[in-house]
Amino acid sequence: MDSKTPSPNTADKMKTVKASCDTAAAGPKKDSAMKHLQAAEKAHTAKNDSECNRELDAAKHALA
What we know:
mainly alpha; globular
């Protein structure tokens, strides 16, 4: 599969991370996670799957 083509896994991962960000308590962790989520959405729009996944992982890490 071409790495520029978003996989169904990426879309599912994006939904999961977005839900986690939406339900997180306000504060610096949420702010950081939201920045990564926005970058992931931009990468997803550009069909850059690897960058999208990298940003989603960073968002999850920011909330941990």
